[in-house]
């Protein structure tokens, strides 16, 4: 497959190396305004959906419980992911403004990668929450106190942020003497280092180890939590009680799959489909960043009764809310 990329002033070498160029959908520049419609719709659904969940949890005292505090962290992270990529996406699709400074690119990169890692940490915390609720319900409120939940949230953010700092700091010392055209509508670390005219071995190895250790630790923790949960659930005599216990985990399992399946798909495409059409790489990257913020609030609104009631209270008159119970 061959897709011609738009020409940029950087190719002539007249501009400083602090300027980079993002692309939208290569080969379809004339249709960017139309292509922006589904993207804007997805962004709107994601931002409004996560904002609604945050508002419901904040205003409903009955939802001030560990499970919903972790859900608020997940919604906050998803909304941050959407807001991190939205500005450059709209500039490219609406105004054909492709240029971005190095500092702005690194800043966007920091939030995208940090929030992505943080979402994995939050899902691990939510798995631990389900484990305590099902396997040790009598100590649920004493183990997951509001103070401890706040510490978990702060630790998740600091872990993700501090781990990214060495990678991004080193970028400032790299000379970029090749083309300054990046491959997406937003800045990614793996996309920028391929343009560097320097030894990027540390960044490549550190980035691979970082992803393997952090996501590997989180996914292993989630797996172990569900092994204990299944063992505890299978010991329940009543079939109805078993289904009720597993149903409380359904939304979280969907959220885990929504994050990890596109992530694994994107990794496979990068590793084993390097010669595939650029559209495949771009599509997988957009799915990875856009799908979780869009689907998570929908899933929790459908599967969680308390959230569903909160949504109905916002959208429907009080009489309808009383009918729905």
Automatic annotation (TrEMBL):
Pfam families: 7tm_4 (PF13853). GO terms for molecular function: G protein-coupled receptor activity; olfactory receptor activity. Residues 49-300 form the G-protein coupled receptors family 1 profile domain. This is Olfactory receptor. InterPro entries: GPCR_Rhodpsn, GPCR_Rhodpsn_7TM, Olfact_rcpt, OR51/52/56-like. It is a multi-pass membrane protein. Belongs to the G-protein coupled receptor 1 family. SUPFAM superfamilies: Family A G protein-coupled receptor-like (SSF81321). Keywords: Cell membrane, G-protein coupled receptor, Membrane, Olfaction, Receptor, Sensory transduction, Transducer, Transmembrane, Transmembrane helix. One of its GO terms (biological process) is cellular response to lipid. The chain crosses the membrane at residues 34-57, 69-90, 110-128, 149-173, 204-229, 250-273, 279-299. It comes from Vombatus ursinus. One of its GO terms (cellular component) is plasma membrane. It is found in: Cell membrane; Membrane.
């Amino acid at each position: 497959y061959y897709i011609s990329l738009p020409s940029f002033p950087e190719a002539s070498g007249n501009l400083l190396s602090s300027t980079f160029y993002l692309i939208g959908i290569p080969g379809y520049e004339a249709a960017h305004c139309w292509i922006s419609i589904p993207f804007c719709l997805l962004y709107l659904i994601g931002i409004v959906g996560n904002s609604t969940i945050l508002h419901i949890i904040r205003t409903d005292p009955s939802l001030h419980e560990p499970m919903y505090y972790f859900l608020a962290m997940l919604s906050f992270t998803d909304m941050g992911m959407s807001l991190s990529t939205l500005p450059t996406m709209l500039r490219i699709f609406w105004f054909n403004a492709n240029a971005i400074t190095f500092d702005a690119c690194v800043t966007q990169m920091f939030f995208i990668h940090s929030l992505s890692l943080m979402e994995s940490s939050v899902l691990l915390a939510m798995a631990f929450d389900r484990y305590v609720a099902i396997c040790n319900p009598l100590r649920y409120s004493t183990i997951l106190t509001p103070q401890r939940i706040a510490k978990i949230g702060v630790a998740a953010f600091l872990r993700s942020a501090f781990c990214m700092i060495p990678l991004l700091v080193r970028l400032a010392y790299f000379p970029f003497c090749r083309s300054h055209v990046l491959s997406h509508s937003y800045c990614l670390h793996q996309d920028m280092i391929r343009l560097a005219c320097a030894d990027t071995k540390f960044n490549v190895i550190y980035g691979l180890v970082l992803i393997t250790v952090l996501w590997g630790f989180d996914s292993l923790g989630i797996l172990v939590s569900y092994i204990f949960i299944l063992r505890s659930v299978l010991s329940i005599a009543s079939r109805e009680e078993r289904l009720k216990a597993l149903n409380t985990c359904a939304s979280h399992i969907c959220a885990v799959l929504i994050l990890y399946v596109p992530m694994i798909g994107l990794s496979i495409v990068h590793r084993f489909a390097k010669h595939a059409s650029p559209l495949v790489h771009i599509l997988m990257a957009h799915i990875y960043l856009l799908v979780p913020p869009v689907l998570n609030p929908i899933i929790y609104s459908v599967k969680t009764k308390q959230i569903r009631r909160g949504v109905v209270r916002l959208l429907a008159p009080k009489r309808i809310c009383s009918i729905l119970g």
